[in-house]
Write a structure and sequence with these properties.
Structural class of chain A: alpha/beta
Largest sheet of chain A: 7 strands, parallel
GO molecular function (chains A, B): methyltransferase activity
Distance between the termini of chain A: 24 Å
Number of domains of chain A: 2
Strand order of the largest sheet of chain A: 9-8-7-12-10-13-11
CATH architecture of the largest domain in chain A: 3-Layer(aba) Sandwich
Oligomer: homodimer
Mean pLDDT of chain A: 96
CATH superfamily of the largest domain in chain A: SPOUT methyltransferase, trefoil knot domain
Pfam families (chains A, B): Methyltrans_RNA
Protein name (chains A, B): Ribosomal RNA small subunit methyltransferase E
Function (chains A, B): Specifically methylates the N3 position of the uracil ring of uridine 1498 (m3U1498) in 16S rRNA. Acts on the fully assembled 30S ribosomal subunit.
Helix content of chain A: 25-40%
Subcellular location (chains A, B): Cytoplasm
CATH class of the largest domain in chain A: Alpha Beta
Chain lengths: 237, 237
């Protein structure tokens, strides 16, 4: 927790913040070993970053007096990430990784090789997803919550949502065996599509290329989704 | 398991291989759903890759008849990775990530912010480390086992081992706040040093820079070690 992320309900009159949830209280006590008078980094969800002084700490709450919260969060990546829904544990870690790297739009997509049971996982609950996003923001000192949407059908996604997404972005389909190596150091708005373990099936690849995506690869090595997605983002941006 | 990695003891007269360990037998049965006559990708540890036909499968062993095992493994990365010893679970995942990405030399280093207890973890046992390396190789269809060495003292490492390592490699110290952004797409032999959670202390940074390392950063975001190490490798090579 390199930043204490304050939700609107944590803040009173812009000068005082109270943190009451057990996870953060425990972290303050056990990891930060915080004591009264300590100055820590805080951020307002969707807003600025600054320092605050810990003025009270007990079993129920930690109270901070805030300085001007006027530093901007780190810049986001210009990417909308479309990720074939990974298995639940991999999803959790991937959400944390990509949030920490600065992804702000995430769509979780069904495809043939996504096991149907993954869509029933408790990890897809709104609060669970939010928990992982918050961990990613706290890690990277960011305040801007990513938006996560679910696309439970491959064909409706391709036919109804993809054209709109590609109107303002270049589309890159990361898939082993595609002709072009992953570009490096780009800054234009990009839609990055990453398949499931085992990859998209040929028909899905064809549909995505037909829709205007460019196929890219990371070399001959087959990577786990959570490794691949970090490697792609780090190489692209 | 995108490749079945054969240890020397798995192979008989270069034409037959037997896999006997429960993990791989289970994987063959439950994930590959392998049946007699299936042709799968196998690799000889430290050697070539080819296909083999499953000719027998029971509770005790899977027997393959091998084709010519004459395809080379994917190229390694020209990097020696020096990683401040992460906490055990992060170590396990980091070893798998970096092995899958093609790192062949790994040194786990002590530094001030590495908790001493981490050096007592069972995850540092030779067999445990090997297990994670094998998972990384199986994932990325590689056969060449990385070498892992332990440097239990920061100062002896810097004084006794680092000069030799830097004689043939450029040294890059990845640390937040360093002056240069991480280079992109290099191919020269590199020693990449990555600190612990919380970072190297200023004195350690100074020692590494004095030894000839160049300080690089990945931007304003603070990343977890396992995210940072994948991002660095993907951006560098």
């Amino acid at each position: 927790m390199n930043l204490i992320l304050l939700a609107p309900e944590d803040i009173e009159d812009r000068r005082q913040a109270r943190v009451r949830d057990p996870r953060r209280l425990r972290h303050l006590r056990e990891v930060h070993r915080a004591t009264i008078g300590d100055r820590l980094t805080l951020g307002i969800q969707g807003g600025g970053i600054g320092r605050g002084e810990l003025v009270a700490l007990d079993d129920e709450e930690a109270c901070f007096t805030l300085d001007a919260m006027d530093q901007p969060p780190p810049p986001p990546l210009p990417v909308h990430l479309v990720l074939a829904l990974p298995r639940p544990r991999m999803l959790a870690r991937s959400l944390e990784h990509v949030t920490a790297l600065g992804v702000k739009q995430i769509t979780l997509l069904h495809s043939r090789r996504v096991e149907k049971s993954y869509w029933q996982s408790p990890e897809l609950g709104e609060q669970k997803i939010r928990d992982h996003l918050v961990l990613g923001l706290e890690q990277s000192r960011d305040t801007v919550m990513p938006e996560v949407s679910l696309a439970r059908g491959f064909r409706p996604f391709v036919e109804e949502r993809l054209p709109g997404l590609l109107a303002e972005r270049q589309g890159l389909l990361a898939h082993p065996g595609m002709p072009s190596p992953c570009p490096r150091g780009i800054d234009r708005p990009t839609l990055l599509i990453v398949g499931p373990e085992g990859g998209f099936i040929p028909h899905e690849v064809e549909r995505l290329l037909d829709a205007g995506c460019q196929g890219i690869h990371l070399g001959p090595r087959i990577l786990r989704v959570e490794t691949a997605v970090v490697a792609l983002l780090a190489r692209l941006f």
